[in-house]
Specification:
Aminopeptidase; 5 helices; alpha+beta; globular; binds coenzyme A; seven-stranded mixed beta sheet; 7 strands
């Protein structure tokens, strides 16, 4: 999970910006919205098998209770049920619902990209979860794909996320989807756990 809002998102983004500047090619600073070039992105879309029963769609207001209920999976890390509800309801985040046989079985959330951030434009995956009985079927991967495509369409060049260093399932999921470890953040979560910061280049056409 990420740390948007009251847990220091601004400070974290400033820090990320410094890290990213050190690794990114120094090509100057764009104007506002300067990286939104439709058609520039070439993410390879993998469709789920037709008989998998899996799909994903943008979340609406009616999904708030589902998102809230599923957010309990993050409680070991801090009061994320309240935090995620706040992000979802305030419109500070964009959420997606993962469906299995047309029934909500997971969700993913990314932070809105601010036009005020400068190069390189970075989107953040704030949370992703799948209910236990629907895991290992590819639903998280499908939602991650939706997040990546949305972020790229909004002009992001990279996607970052934070996940607990002890979260083997999440770490493996992200590594198999092309993320690499950028940094370890000590005591990142409200409950004190360390997090891995991972990053993925969303690619160029
Ligand atoms: C992490 C999580 C979202 C994965 O959801 P999922 O739908 O099971 O993931 P997928 O089926 O798309 O898995 C894709 C790949 O990720 C890896 N993976 C997923 N779960 C794994 C596990 N428990 N152990 C090892 N690798 C795992 C595998 O490589 C898997 O491919 P495979 O099944 O072909 O081997 C889910 O376990 C979850 O909700 N956990 C609790 C919430 C959480 O920790 N979220 C992440 C922090 S923000």
């Amino acid at each position: 999970m990420g740390q948007q809002g009251r847990y220091g998102k601004y400070g974290e983004h400033k820090r990320m910006e410094r890290l990213l500047r050190g690794k990114a090619p120094g090509t100057g600073r764009p104007g506002r919205g300067g990286f939104f070039r439709p058609g520039r992105w070439a993410l390879e879309r993998k469709e789920p098998a037709p008989d998998s029963g899996l799909s994903a769609r943008p979340a609406g207001r009616a999904d708030a209770e589902h998102v809230h209920a599923m957010s309990r999976m993050f409680r070991a890390y801090g009061p994320y049920q309240d935090i995620l509800r706040e992000w979802h309801e305030s419109g500070a985040a964009i959420a997606f619902i993962g469906l299995r046989d047309n029934r909500p079985a997971g969700f993913a959330m990314m932070g809105r990209i601010s036009a005020a951030w400068h190069f390189p434009r970075v989107a953040e995956l704030l949370a992703i979860a799948v209910e236990p009985s629907s895991r290992r079927r590819g639903l998280a991967g499908l939602m991650l794909q939706e997040v990546e495509e949305t972020a790229a369409a909004l002009g992001a060049e990279r996607l970052i996320l934070h996940t607990g260093v002890d979260n083997v399932a999440a770490r493996t999921l992200f590594l198999t989807h092309g993320f690499t470890v950028l940094d370890t953040c000590r005591a990142f979560y409200p409950e004190g756990q360390d997090a891995l910061c991972m990053i993925k280049d969303l690619g160029h056409a």
